[in-house]
Amino acid sequence: MEARLNLMASPVAAKAFKQIVAAGHALGESGLPFATREFVNLRVSQINGCAGCVDMHTKELAHAGESAVRINLVAAWREATVFSEAERAALELAEQGTRIADAAGGVPDEVWENAAKHYDEEQLAALVAQIAIINAFNRGNVMTRQPAGDYRVGQYR
Length: 157
Fold this sequence. Notes:
Distance between the termini: 25 Å
Pfam families: CMD
Protein name: Carboxymuconolactone decarboxylase family protein
Helix content: 55-70%
Number of helices: 7
Number of strands: 0
InterPro entries: AhpD-like, AhpD_core, CMD-like
Number of domains: 1
Oligomer: single chain
Domain Carboxymuconolactone decarboxylase-like: 16-95
Structural class: mainly alpha
């Protein structure tokens, strides 16, 4: 597959996406565990069909020492026994936050309240930002048909 557009070759798009990358890096200071952030990124990317981001986040998780079982079961996390209750709450919030167009009322209160049981306000803020950021990346990549498979761990740090 060939990309429709090289976003990083456009001065305007490159500048915008570099700011989004910087926003994502800032979330590393939130206290939200790296694995949780990456599992959220992976699940949202799966939902949105963003092959480039699926490639990236599976490789980042593997490099960080996550097991192939946990990485592979993100797509079926509800039935999997390998995720903590906190991770499950983050994945549910990520799914609901990604699919807001499918639900008339947005993210249901019970989903938010469950996440709030496991994460403090700073971590919840980071989760909301993480979900928004990965959705932005997914949409840009999917619209421009960015190919997948060549990502190298740490490539965008």
